[in-house]
């Protein structure tokens, strides 16, 4: 008597539906268990850290959110706060133009540096992101001249003349470079100098007075604008100079080699602040009182020399890291020095040097605040000098310096993120 | 390298016209602007307001000189200078005069080849303590910790003072006034010592100024005044007598309010007449217009008006006249006669 149809062994005909994992092994709890409370010491550390973070936030957040944004003086601020904890951000709103544009940049002309700042992105983009159409490089080409005109104003003839000099130099270079690089290079430099020298006489006296854009003296520029101007100018000038110095240091021609070695070692052996003092104080003795070179220009030259020396050493490191075979490969292909460098050596060496160069660029950008010791009102000089010394705001520190720190952090973090992207983008090895 | 050459060429093009300097007075007149070196920021003495216009007691002296020479109190280019750059800027001719709370000392006058043209503020080193400390005289500060800026004369003055009174102290070295305020408020030191005017300004910026007192002892002499380069006495005279005109105006009762009336016609007081140019040739002797002093006084008022407006008792700084009162009121201000 069997009823086989009903006494089949227990066999599942379908899989069990998936169960959720145990609560302790999933989601946030698992993550916390593994990462925060994996062992007793870890748990203790987690709790201590949480407490520290909590106490910091408990102090800082009310201070920020209770902040006063509208007041005319520190005393008024304190009256509004009435004993409660809170920041006095009113100093930022009241002194905003001074923090950004400096003491005496004419208020009606604020659009000019703002426009120059916006254009900076368009000019920098094709250089920084090489997937963009190459035609955009035209903006980059014109950018220095347009910006000079926007920031300093005055007659448009000066930037045009400057541009004409570069064009003349380039044409002469093109004409002679086939013969020899040196002839092309020095011919180009001489041609540009001649154009500038002759052009200097063509610009009529007083052209600055009735120019379309009102002229603004370097002394009137300040605030974060000055930091940006110094940072952008010096970084973009010092990278090519640094490359030249690095190559010069490896040159087999003793004169060039020793000039580069002495320059690099001397500049690296001197603190930047000393160079700035030389720029602001000593150089004034070498010129007659009325005809001294603009202080901004003096500072740009000094900072550029300084960072160029450092960048040269970074790039030299990149050059040294290349296997000798690369140099020999270039030679065996019959490339001359310029071609070998441009096509084989430098692209690889520069790629290796990116983190170092960015490191120096970030440092340089922050070092631009040192100009406050030679009485230029960059953002830190502005805060330490005029703003803190006004009877209205004497005694506000955290808000102002925190704001300056925030601006610098945003900029430097941006530079750093870009360099990481660049490294990933250029990674051609198979790691 | 190209860029450098380019700017160099621009500079040649732009500044080729200027030539070597003649006398400073002629330079200033020709330029139409007075280059005046001021502090990069000192409460009440020199600081730009929210619109970037410089204000303050030292700034008032610059404006008075500009008004006397050029007839326009606004014709001043203020060159902010740090303590480290101020003397070289003056020597190198970047500024025509320095009005930057600079103490008149022997070595600065003689060795650095500068010429002090008078004293516009008699300062001195003082002490500030919290009221809770229960101290009413610096002589009771035995064993106190003292916040002091390093590398200044205040450090040396302090050591001298405490040694001569045979009391001990522990210095807390700090770098800047801002740092000192924070340290002092945080209780890192019992006493903060620096120039009395700066103490008053610092105290005024505190949340509760009443909790702190400035002790009566002044332990050093800090005569602050405008200065010019050695070797141009004509220009030195202009600055010196402009300052004297401001001081004399207070003594003679000439204010910016009544000056128009007094200068319109000779008054009964011959000294006022000589000062205001309605009598005599004083302006011409300086190489200026006859109404130079009228312009200088109108620029910001006489000495008392400048003082009250910028650092006086009705301002947040609230300095009393003290030593800076006229000699007739028991102070030290004493202008030589205008004759």
From TrEMBL, chain A:
Signal peptide start-end: none
MF GO annotations: transmembrane transporter activity
Membrane-spanning parts: 40-65, 110-129, 185-204, 224-247, 259-287, 299-322, 343-365, 396-415
PROSITE patterns on file: ABC_TM1
Location(s) in or outside the cell: Cell inner membrane; Cell membrane
Keyword hit for Transmembrane: yes
Pfam families: BPD_transp_1
CDD domains reported in the protein's UniProt record: TM_PBP2
Sequence similarity: Belongs to the binding-protein-dependent transport system permease family. HisMQ subfamily.
Name of the protein in question: L-glutamine ABC transporter membrane protein /L-glutamate ABC transporter membrane protein /L-aspartate ABC transporter membrane protein /L-asparagine ABC transporter membrane protein
TrEMBL record, chain B:
Keyword Signal: yes
Chain ranges of the Solute-binding protein family 3/N-terminal domain: 33-262
SUPFAM superfamilies: Periplasmic binding protein-like II (SSF53850)
Domain of life of the organism encoding this protein: Bacteria
BP terms from Gene Ontology: amino acid transport
CDD domains in UniProt: PBP2_BztA
UniProt keyword terms in alphabetical order: Signal, Transport
Entries under Pfam families matching the protein: SBP_bac_3
Similarity annotation: Belongs to the bacterial solute-binding protein 3 family.
The protein, known as: L-glutamine-binding protein /L-glutamate-binding protein /L-aspartate-binding protein /L-asparagine-binding protein
Species this protein is from: Yoonia maricola
């Amino acid at each position: 008597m069997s009823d086989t149809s009903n006494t089949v062994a227990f066999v599942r005909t379908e899989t069990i539906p998936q169960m959720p994992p145990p609560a302790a092994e999933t989601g946030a709890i698992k993550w916390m268990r593994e990462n925060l409370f994996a062992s007793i010491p870890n748990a203790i550390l987690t709790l201590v850290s949480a407490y520290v973070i909590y106490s910091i936030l408990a102090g800082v957040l009310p201070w920020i959110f209770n902040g006063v944004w509208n007041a005319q003086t520190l005393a008024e601020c304190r009256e509004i706060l009435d004993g409660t904890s809170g920041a006095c951000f009113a100093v930022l709103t009241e002194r905003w133009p001074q923090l950004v544009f400096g003491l005496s940049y004419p208020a009606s002309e604020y659009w000019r540096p703002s426009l120059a700042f916006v254009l900076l992105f368009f000019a920098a983009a094709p250089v920084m992101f090489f997937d963009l159409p190459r035609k955009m490089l035209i903006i980059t080409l014109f950018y220095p001249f347009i910006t000079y005109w926007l920031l300093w104003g005055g007659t448009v003839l000066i930037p045009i003349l400057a541009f004409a000099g570069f064009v003349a130099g380039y044409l002469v270079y093109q004409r002679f470079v086939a013969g020899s690089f040196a002839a092309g290079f020095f011919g180009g430099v001489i041609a540009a100098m001649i154009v500038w020298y002759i052009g200097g006489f063509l610009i009529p006296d007083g052209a600055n007075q009735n120019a379309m854009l009102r002229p603004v003296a370097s002394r009137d520029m300040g605030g974060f604008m000055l930091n940006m101007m110094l940072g952008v100018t010096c970084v973009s000038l010092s990278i090519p100079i640094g490359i030249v110095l690095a190559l010069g240091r490896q040159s087999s021609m003793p004169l060039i080699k020793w000039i580069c070695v002495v320059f690099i070692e001397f500049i690296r052996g001197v603190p930047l602040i000393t160079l700035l003092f030389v720029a602001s104080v000593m150089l004034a003795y070498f010129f007659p009182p009325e005809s001294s070179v603009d202080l901004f220009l003096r500072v740009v030259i000094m900072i550029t020399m300084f960072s160029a020396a450092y960048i040269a050493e970074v790039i030299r490191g990149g050059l040294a890291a290349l296997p000798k075979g690369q140099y020999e490969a270039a030679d065996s292909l019959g490339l001359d020095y310029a071609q070998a460098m441009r096509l084989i050596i430098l692209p690889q060496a520069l790629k290796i040097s990116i983190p170092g160069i960015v490191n120096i660029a970030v440092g340089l950008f922050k070092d631009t605040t040192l100009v406050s010791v030679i009485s230029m009102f960059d953002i830190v000089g502005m805060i330490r000098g005029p703003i803190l010394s006004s009877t209205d705001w004497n005694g506000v520190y955290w808000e102002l310096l925190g704001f300056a720190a925030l601006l610098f952090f945003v900029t430097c973090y941006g530079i750093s993120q870009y360099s990481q992207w660049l490294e990933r983008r250029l990674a051609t090895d198979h790691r | 390298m190209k860029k450098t050459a380019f700017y160099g060429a621009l500079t040649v093009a732009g500044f080729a016209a200027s030539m070597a300097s003649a006398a400073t007075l002629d330079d200033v007149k020709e330029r139409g602007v007075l280059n005046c070196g001021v502090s990069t920021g000192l409460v009440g003495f020199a600081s730009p307001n929210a619109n970037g216009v410089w204000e303050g007691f030292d700034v008032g002296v610059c404006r008075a000189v500009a008004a006397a020479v050029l007839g326009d109190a606004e014709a001043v280019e203020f060159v902010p200078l740090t303590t480290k750059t101020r003397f070289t800027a003056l020597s190198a001719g970047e500024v025509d005069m320095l009005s930057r709370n600079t103490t008149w000392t022997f070595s600065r006058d003689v060795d650095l080849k500068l010429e002090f043209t008078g004293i516009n503020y008699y300062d001195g080193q003082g002490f500030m303590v919290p009221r809770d400390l229960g101290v009413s005289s610096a002589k009771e500060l035995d064993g106190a910790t003292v916040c002091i800026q390093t590398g200044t004369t205040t450090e040396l003055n302090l050591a001298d003072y405490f040694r001569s009174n045979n009391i001990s102290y522990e210095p807390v070295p700090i770098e800047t006034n801002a740092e000192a305020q924070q340290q002092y408020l945080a209780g890192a030191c019992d006493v903060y010592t620096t120039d009395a005017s700066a103490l008053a300004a610092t105290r005024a910026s505190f949340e509760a100024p009443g909790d702190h007192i400035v002790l009566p002892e002044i332990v050093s002499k800090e005569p602050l005044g405008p200065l010019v380069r050695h070797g141009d006495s004509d220009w030195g005279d202009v600055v010196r007598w402009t300052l004297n005109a401001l001081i004399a105006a207070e003594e003679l009762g000439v204010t910016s309010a009544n000056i128009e009336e007094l200068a319109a016609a000779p008054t009964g007081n011959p000294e006022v007449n000589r000062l205001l140019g309605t009598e005599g040739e004083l302006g011409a002797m300086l190489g200026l217009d006859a109404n130079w002093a009228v312009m200088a006084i109108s620029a910001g008022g006489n000495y008392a008006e400048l003082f009250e407006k910028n650092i006086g008792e009705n301002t947040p700084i609230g300095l009393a006249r003290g030593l800076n009162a006229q000699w007739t009121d028991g102070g030290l201000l004493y202008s030589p006669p205008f004759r």
